[in-house]
UniProtKB/TrEMBL annotation:
Family affiliation: Belongs to the enoyl-CoA hydratase/isomerase family.
Short name of one Pfam family: ECH_1
Superkingdom of the source species: Bacteria
InterPro entries reported for this sequence: ClpP/crotonase-like_dom_sf, Enoyl-CoA_hydra/iso, Enoyl-CoA_hydra_C
Identification of the protein by name: Enoyl-CoA hydratase/carnithine racemase
GO molecular function: catalytic activity
PANTHER family in the record: EG:BACN32G11.4 PROTEIN, ENOYL-COA HYDRATASE
Length: 264
């Protein structure tokens, strides 16, 4: 087993053909701030460059997978230049994960919300526990999804259902997420690791080079579409950050009350 000590906010270890990467900001429910995104991107690039690895497993430390983007750190962004830099990092993160020449497996327990959910959607196979809480909840603070979620949800659900899910901002538990097609397995609470191990064994017993060639074909077909979605999300998110509804959504979030949106 090889353990990487290069990162402060993610854990990476490799054993044989399997790499395991764990988000490691448990006190913030693995909220994605600039530091975590930088470490995660570095670790993903390390795995991508390793010819021995054919399977990547992505999970979260602590009580949940990821609560999404770190709102406190986002509030500290002082202008469009800083915002643009963060969005470019998100785009690189999602594109690296989506195009990873490995079978990417995400295991979700607890919360997977916002950008955290986007990262999960960029993987090839998603397992969650039945009491997990999955949400594309940007609408609650007057924003649009980012992390390529417009494209990723369209791929899983189709345009009409993706649009409804984004507009509703509903929280889905594991079984309902499975029924909707948002995840590939829903397991009893505490059984996530069992499901991950079973799927790893299934992949290791399969002709993974053929699996990954199929993935390469689909990535080639869709990469430009995903990049276009990321570019549009970056532009649209900046515009939404200027709206009165977003400011009201943030105030309501901080004050722990229901927002009163005006459509402005």
């Amino acid at each position: 087993m090889t353990v990487s000590n290069h990162y402060e906010t993610v854990k990476l270890h490799k054993e044989g053909r399997v790499a395991r990467l764990q988000l490691n900001r448990p006190k913030s429910l693995n909220a994605l701030d600039a530091g975590l995104m930088k470490d995660l991107l570095g670790a993903l690039k390390e795995v991508k460059a390793d010819p021995e690895v054919s399977i990547l497993v992505l999970t979260g430390e602590g009580k949940g997978f990821s609560s999404g983007g770190d709102i406190k750190s986002m509030l500290m962004l002082s202008g469009e230049e800083q915002f643009s830099g963060i969005m470019d990092t998100i785009s690189e993160l999602v594109m690296t994960l989506y195009s990873m020449p490995k079978v990417v497996v995400t295991g979700i327990h607890g919360a997977a919300a916002g950008l955290g959910f986007s990262l999960a959607l960029a993987s090839d196979y998603i397992l969650c526990e039945e009491d997990s809480k999955l949400a594309m909840n940007f609408i609650g603070i007057g924003l649009i999804p980012d992390g390529g979620s417009h494209f990723l949800l369209q791929e899983r659900l189709g345009t009409h259902k993706a649009k409804r899910l984004i507009w509703n901002g509903k929280v889905f538990e594991g079984q309902e997420a499975l029924m909707k097609g948002l995840v590939d397995e829903a397991l009893p609470s505490g059984k996530l690791e069992d499901g991950i191990e079973r799927y790893i064994k299934q992949c290791l017993a399969a002709p993974t080079r053929a699996m990954l060639k199929t993935k390469e074909v689909y990535v080639s077909l869709n990469k430009e579409r995903l990049q276009h979605a990321l570019d549009l999300e970056k532009e649209g998110q900046w515009l939404m950050r200027q709206t009165d509804d977003h400011q009201e959504g943030i105030r309501a979030f901080v004050e722990k009350r229901r927002p009163e949106f005006k459509g402005n």
